[in-house]
Amino acid sequence: MGDQLFSFFQKKETKRVIIFILMAFILYLLKSIIDLILLTFIFSYLMNRLEKIVTKRIPLNRKLTVIILYILIVGLLTFGITRYLPVLIDEITELVKQIVSFYTRPQHNVVLNYIVEYIQDKKITDYVQKGFTVLVSYFSTISQVSLQVFMSFLLSLFFLLEKERIIRFTKQFKHSKLASFYEELEYFGQKFVGTFGKVIEAQFIIAFVNAILSAIGLSILGFPQLLGLVLMIFCLGLIPVAGVIISLIPLCLIAYSIGGAIEIVYVLILVAIIHSIETYVLNPKLMSSKTNLPVFYTFLILIFSEHFFGVWGLILGIPVIVFFLDVLEVTNHHHSNKINH
Asked: Considering the entire predicted model, what is its pTM?
């Protein structure tokens, strides 16, 4: 019995499960700084990818490229905040006023009046007020969030500047008494970067492209407060599938207020075109086949991840599940030869 138990714990699969549970427990203990850890990983991964793209085209020293990229991004952020933040605040304020005005004034459409009355009867405005209360609480901790973003940005800079040295130092554990733990940590690390990082990168690119295309389309349709709308579309674009549907609600309300029902039709056509570009052009190029989850599962994951992890869950729920699927080797073997880590 003792020999069987010993052989059971010596199995690679058993060790892998135990080490994975231990890693999950350590992350649970670090839950108070999990935002810092996630942001540092995301910044490091995206900046590392950007640095590789730049150095592939321009033969510069890697560290010099990293420093230049960080200086450029900080400069652009500083310029954007000082120049456009007041405009953005004004535009968001106007958007809120426009939506409130639509809700409070009587409509000339029987269906719309029925919807407004239904909302009033069901006291959905109470939930909206609660939502605003939550938003206020988020903004009240803006200094803490800003500090976390700054620290994550700084840590990602130090990591990229010393990347080779960090890799060399970490590899020393491969021949130490922690060799078993290191091997499993390396395995999970490679899986995490190859799936979680890949999906996060794809979500950012897709959200950015969608925001640019939406800006062009909405400007043609004559939408006001374009900067605020584009920022909203970009942020919601980080939520897979559901972000498109959520963004439709304010867009349709604004469309009706500026051009009636026909403007809503134009918005729906615009969103359908952009969503088709995302589905048939961007997703196949940016996402591996294993991230091709059915829509039902996608919404199910988003509901549960939002319930347990809040806003982070909406953005990171799908990448985390894709990581687990990769660890469990739940892959589409028909397209496995197309997957490129």
From this structure: 0.71
Which has the closest alpha carbon to 154: 75, 36, 31, 54?
Answer: 36
Half-sphere exposure of 57 (CA within 13 A, CB side): 5
d(CA 281, CA 319): 20
Rounded (10°) CA dihedral 341, 292, 31, 14: -70
Q: How many C-beta atoms surround the C-beta of residue 287 within 10 A?
A: 20
CA distance 134 to 105: 26
Other C-beta atoms within 10 Å of 152: how many? 20
Distance between CA 106 and CA 252 in Å, rounded? Answer: 17
Closest-CA residue to 312 (of 153, 151, 200): 200
3 state DSSP class of 176: coil
**Six-digit token string for 54:** 């730049």
Contact (CB, 8 A) for 184 and 174: no
106: which DSSP letter?
P
- 222: how many CB neighbours lie within 10 A of its CB? 11
Which backbone phi and psi does 92 adopt, to 5 degrees? -65, -40
User: Alpha carbon 263 to chain centroid distance?
Assistant: 30
Q: Tell me: the pLDDT tens digits for 107-123?
A: 555 555 555 555 555 44
Residue percentage of the chain with pLDDT more than 90:
10
Cα first-last separation, the chain: 43
Token duo for residue 243: 């972000």
Q: Is the distance from CB of 314 to CB of 182 less than 8 angstroms? A: no
CA–CA distance, 122 with 286 (Å, rounded to integer): 42
Amino acid at 43: F
